[in-house]
Amino acid sequence: MIPDVQLIKQGAEARVYLGPFCQRQAIIKERFAKAYRHPTLDKKLTSRRVIQEARCLYRCQKALIDTPTVYLVDLDQSVIYMEYIPGISVRDYLVTEPGQEAEAQHRVAVAIGKALGAMHNIDVIHGDLTTSNLLMRETSGAVVLIDFGLSYVSQLIEDKAVDLYVLERAFVSTHPNTEVMFAQILEAYGESSKASKQILKKLEDVRLRGRKRSMLG
Ligand SMILES: Nc1ncnc2c1ncn2[C@@H]1O[C@H](COP(=O)(O)OP(=O)(O)OP(=O)(O)O)[C@@H](O)[C@H]1O
Ligand SMILES: [Mg+2]
Questions:
Q1: Ligand having the closest approach to the CA of 19
Q2: What's the pLDDT tens digit per position in 100-132?
Q3: Which of 27, 78, 143 should be mutated for ligand 1, with most atoms under 8 A from CB?
Q4: Is 205 a catalytic residue?
Q5: Which domain, by its residues, includes 142?
C-alpha cells in the first residue's frame, strides 16, 4: 500500500484505508487473498467480489442514488478507490446517541427507507444490510449506502424481501427499542419502492420462515 494511508478497518476479506487520490481524500478498499484457498480460485473469487461491488456502486450512481462515487477500480490489485463520505454510521448514531428526539430518528428512518426503495427500484440487492453499512453525511445528514461487496442485480421480490429481513435482524440484534424506527423505515420504503406491496407481503413470509427455523434450532 502507498504511504500516507491510514487503515480504518481490517476485515476478514478486505482492508479499508483512508488516503489520497488525485488530491483528495479517498477510501481505498483492498480485498486480499485467503491463505486457505487455492491461489487461482482465490484470485477468481476476489476479482468477482471487486467487480460486483464496483458494478453495483456504479449502477446506483447512474440512478442518482447516494453512494460513494467510484474513482478507480484496480482489478490486478483488487482495489477500489472511492469517494470518502465524512460522517458517522447509522450504527454509531444509534449506539452513541440513544434516545434522540423522536423527530430526528424519524428523519433518519425516512432517509433509510427512501434509499432502500430507490436501490430496489433499480434491482440492486445489497446483500449485507446492517446499520454499519449505512452512513450519514456530516454535511447534510443524507443516508449513504456503502459496502456492496455482496451485492447483485435481481428483480425477484423474494431477494428484495430477504434484503429487508437482513436489515430487520440487524436492527433487532444491535439496537434495542428501535421497533418504531424500523416500522418507519418500512413505511418510507413502501412509499418509494415500485413493488413495495408485494415485497412487504413477502417480508411477512420470510419472517415466518425465520421464526420456524429458529424454533427448530
Ligand atoms: N466511502 C466511505 N466513506 C467513509 N467511510 C467508509 C466508506 N467506505 C467504508 N467506510 C468505512 O469503513 C468501514 C468498512 O467498510 P466496508 O463496510 O465497505 O467494508 P467491510 O465491511 O470490511 O467489507 P465486506 O463486508 O465487503 O468484506 C465502514 O463501516 C465505514 O466505517
Ligand atoms: Mg461493512
A1: 1
A2: 788 899 999 999 999 999 999 999 999 999 999
A3: 27
A4: no
A5: 87-216
